[in-house]
From TrEMBL:
Originating species: Eeniella nana
SUPFAM superfamilies: Multidrug resistance efflux transporter EmrE
Location of the protein in the cell: Membrane
Keyword Nuclease among record annotations: no
This protein's name: EamA domain-containing protein
Keyword Transport: yes
Coiled-coil positions: none
Similarity field: Belongs to the SLC35F solute transporter family.
Length: 194
Protein backbone atom coordinates (compact mmCIF):
# COMPACT_ATOMS: atom_id res chain seq x y z
CA UNK A 1 0.00 0.00 0.00
CA UNK A 2 1.15 3.52 -0.72
CA UNK A 3 2.38 5.55 2.21
CA UNK A 4 1.89 9.28 2.71
CA UNK A 5 5.09 11.27 3.00
CA UNK A 6 6.07 14.91 3.25
CA UNK A 7 7.49 14.77 -0.28
CA UNK A 8 4.21 13.49 -1.70
CA UNK A 9 2.19 16.18 0.06
CA UNK A 10 4.54 18.89 -1.22
CA UNK A 11 4.44 17.47 -4.75
CA UNK A 12 0.63 17.36 -4.70
CA UNK A 13 0.61 21.00 -3.55
CA UNK A 14 3.03 21.99 -6.33
CA UNK A 15 0.93 20.16 -8.91
CA UNK A 16 -2.29 21.82 -7.75
CA UNK A 17 -0.59 25.24 -7.68
CA UNK A 18 0.78 24.68 -11.19
CA UNK A 19 -2.64 23.67 -12.51
CA UNK A 20 -4.24 26.72 -10.85
CA UNK A 21 -1.63 29.01 -12.45
CA UNK A 22 -2.18 27.46 -15.88
CA UNK A 23 -5.99 27.50 -15.74
CA UNK A 24 -6.18 30.99 -14.26
CA UNK A 25 -4.13 32.20 -17.21
CA UNK A 26 -7.09 31.79 -19.63
CA UNK A 27 -7.48 34.77 -21.91
CA UNK A 28 -10.65 36.58 -20.76
CA UNK A 29 -11.05 38.31 -24.14
CA UNK A 30 -11.60 35.04 -26.00
CA UNK A 31 -13.65 33.48 -23.22
CA UNK A 32 -17.36 33.97 -23.97
CA UNK A 33 -18.67 32.08 -20.93
CA UNK A 34 -20.33 33.87 -18.05
CA UNK A 35 -19.01 33.71 -14.50
CA UNK A 36 -21.85 31.36 -13.54
CA UNK A 37 -20.95 29.01 -16.40
CA UNK A 38 -17.30 29.03 -15.36
CA UNK A 39 -18.18 28.22 -11.72
CA UNK A 40 -20.60 25.49 -12.85
CA UNK A 41 -17.92 24.04 -15.14
CA UNK A 42 -15.33 24.09 -12.36
CA UNK A 43 -17.75 22.34 -9.98
CA UNK A 44 -18.43 19.65 -12.60
CA UNK A 45 -14.68 19.24 -13.14
CA UNK A 46 -14.16 18.84 -9.38
CA UNK A 47 -16.97 16.27 -9.22
CA UNK A 48 -15.36 14.38 -12.09
CA UNK A 49 -11.98 14.51 -10.37
CA UNK A 50 -13.56 13.18 -7.16
CA UNK A 51 -15.16 10.28 -9.05
CA UNK A 52 -11.83 9.60 -10.82
CA UNK A 53 -10.00 9.57 -7.49
CA UNK A 54 -12.47 7.19 -5.88
CA UNK A 55 -12.35 4.91 -8.95
CA UNK A 56 -8.52 4.88 -8.98
CA UNK A 57 -8.11 4.22 -5.28
CA UNK A 58 -10.78 1.51 -5.15
CA UNK A 59 -9.31 -0.22 -8.20
CA UNK A 60 -5.82 -0.23 -6.68
CA UNK A 61 -7.17 -1.25 -3.25
CA UNK A 62 -9.24 -4.17 -4.54
CA UNK A 63 -6.93 -5.45 -7.29
CA UNK A 64 -3.53 -4.66 -5.72
CA UNK A 65 -1.42 -6.28 -8.47
CA UNK A 66 -1.56 -6.26 -12.24
CA UNK A 67 -1.51 -10.06 -12.44
CA UNK A 68 -4.78 -10.37 -10.47
CA UNK A 69 -7.02 -8.86 -13.16
CA UNK A 70 -7.91 -9.68 -16.75
CA UNK A 71 -7.83 -6.21 -18.33
CA UNK A 72 -9.89 -7.17 -21.38
CA UNK A 73 -12.66 -8.60 -19.23
CA UNK A 74 -12.50 -5.63 -16.84
CA UNK A 75 -12.84 -3.05 -19.62
CA UNK A 76 -15.51 -5.17 -21.27
CA UNK A 77 -17.60 -4.89 -18.11
CA UNK A 78 -16.84 -1.16 -17.78
CA UNK A 79 -18.09 -0.70 -21.34
CA UNK A 80 -21.18 -2.82 -20.71
CA UNK A 81 -22.10 -0.89 -17.55
CA UNK A 82 -21.52 2.45 -19.31
CA UNK A 83 -23.74 1.31 -22.17
CA UNK A 84 -26.52 0.11 -19.87
CA UNK A 85 -26.50 3.01 -17.40
CA UNK A 86 -25.64 5.99 -19.62
CA UNK A 87 -28.27 5.52 -22.34
CA UNK A 88 -31.32 6.34 -20.18
CA UNK A 89 -30.04 9.84 -19.24
CA UNK A 90 -29.28 10.56 -22.92
CA UNK A 91 -32.80 9.57 -23.97
CA UNK A 92 -34.33 11.60 -21.12
CA UNK A 93 -32.25 14.66 -22.10
CA UNK A 94 -33.35 14.20 -25.73
CA UNK A 95 -37.02 13.98 -24.77
CA UNK A 96 -36.74 17.06 -22.52
CA UNK A 97 -35.02 19.02 -25.31
CA UNK A 98 -31.69 19.59 -23.53
CA UNK A 99 -29.63 17.56 -26.00
CA UNK A 100 -30.54 16.45 -29.52
CA UNK A 101 -29.78 12.77 -30.09
CA UNK A 102 -29.21 11.91 -33.75
CA UNK A 103 -27.08 9.70 -35.97
CA UNK A 104 -23.87 11.17 -37.42
CA UNK A 105 -24.45 13.01 -40.72
CA UNK A 106 -21.72 11.35 -42.83
CA UNK A 107 -19.14 8.58 -43.00
CA UNK A 108 -16.31 10.88 -41.85
CA UNK A 109 -17.97 11.36 -38.48
CA UNK A 110 -18.27 7.57 -38.13
CA UNK A 111 -14.52 7.31 -38.82
CA UNK A 112 -13.78 9.97 -36.20
CA UNK A 113 -15.93 8.10 -33.67
CA UNK A 114 -14.19 4.80 -34.44
CA UNK A 115 -10.70 6.29 -34.13
CA UNK A 116 -11.73 8.05 -30.91
CA UNK A 117 -13.10 4.80 -29.46
CA UNK A 118 -9.85 2.98 -30.22
CA UNK A 119 -7.72 5.80 -28.82
CA UNK A 120 -9.90 6.04 -25.72
CA UNK A 121 -9.71 2.30 -25.12
CA UNK A 122 -5.93 2.33 -25.50
CA UNK A 123 -5.59 5.32 -23.15
CA UNK A 124 -7.81 3.70 -20.50
CA UNK A 125 -6.03 0.36 -20.82
CA UNK A 126 -2.59 1.94 -20.44
CA UNK A 127 -3.83 4.14 -17.57
CA UNK A 128 -5.10 1.11 -15.64
CA UNK A 129 -1.92 -0.87 -16.27
CA UNK A 130 0.26 2.05 -15.19
CA UNK A 131 -1.86 2.63 -12.09
CA UNK A 132 -1.62 -1.02 -11.04
CA UNK A 133 2.12 -1.14 -11.74
CA UNK A 134 2.86 2.12 -9.89
CA UNK A 135 0.33 4.02 -7.78
CA UNK A 136 -2.78 6.17 -8.25
CA UNK A 137 -0.80 9.27 -7.23
CA UNK A 138 1.97 8.71 -9.77
CA UNK A 139 -0.48 8.14 -12.61
CA UNK A 140 -2.67 11.10 -11.65
CA UNK A 141 0.25 13.51 -11.48
CA UNK A 142 1.47 11.94 -14.72
CA UNK A 143 -1.84 12.82 -16.38
CA UNK A 144 -1.27 16.47 -15.50
CA UNK A 145 1.95 16.30 -17.53
CA UNK A 146 -0.26 16.83 -20.59
CA UNK A 147 -0.15 20.54 -19.69
CA UNK A 148 3.62 21.01 -20.22
CA UNK A 149 3.50 18.72 -23.27
CA UNK A 150 0.71 20.87 -24.76
CA UNK A 151 2.78 23.98 -24.06
CA UNK A 152 5.78 22.51 -25.91
CA UNK A 153 3.54 21.41 -28.81
CA UNK A 154 2.08 24.92 -29.03
CA UNK A 155 5.59 26.28 -29.38
CA UNK A 156 6.86 23.64 -31.84
CA UNK A 157 3.82 23.41 -34.13
CA UNK A 158 2.16 26.82 -33.79
CA UNK A 159 5.17 28.97 -32.80
CA UNK A 160 3.07 30.27 -29.92
CA UNK A 161 4.71 31.48 -26.72
CA UNK A 162 2.71 31.15 -23.55
CA UNK A 163 2.81 33.69 -20.74
CA UNK A 164 5.46 33.43 -18.02
CA UNK A 165 2.75 32.46 -15.49
CA UNK A 166 1.67 29.56 -17.72
CA UNK A 167 5.28 28.44 -18.15
CA UNK A 168 5.91 28.68 -14.40
CA UNK A 169 2.79 26.60 -13.71
CA UNK A 170 3.92 23.99 -16.26
CA UNK A 171 7.37 23.91 -14.63
CA UNK A 172 5.77 23.31 -11.21
CA UNK A 173 3.84 20.37 -12.68
CA UNK A 174 7.09 18.89 -14.07
CA UNK A 175 8.84 19.31 -10.71
CA UNK A 176 5.86 17.70 -8.97
CA UNK A 177 5.97 14.69 -11.31
CA UNK A 178 9.72 14.29 -10.71
CA UNK A 179 9.26 14.48 -6.92
CA UNK A 180 6.45 11.87 -6.93
CA UNK A 181 8.51 9.48 -9.05
CA UNK A 182 11.60 9.95 -6.90
CA UNK A 183 9.58 9.29 -3.74
CA UNK A 184 7.96 6.24 -5.37
CA UNK A 185 11.40 4.75 -5.98
CA UNK A 186 12.34 5.35 -2.33
CA UNK A 187 9.12 3.58 -1.23
CA UNK A 188 9.92 0.68 -3.56
CA UNK A 189 13.41 0.28 -2.05
CA UNK A 190 12.01 0.31 1.50
CA UNK A 191 9.34 -2.27 0.58
CA UNK A 192 11.97 -4.62 -0.87
CA UNK A 193 14.07 -4.35 2.29
CA UNK A 194 11.12 -5.18 4.60
Amino acid sequence: MESLSKTKVISIGLSVLGIILVTSNDDPVTNQASTTDIIYGNLLALAGALCYGIYSILLKLKVKEDSRIDMKLFFGFVGLFNFLFLWPPLIIMHKLGYEKLELPPNVYVYMIILVNCLASFLADFLWARAMLLTSPLTVTVGLSMTIPVAMVCDFVFKFKWNSPIYMFGAALICVSFYMVNKDEKVDEIYQRND
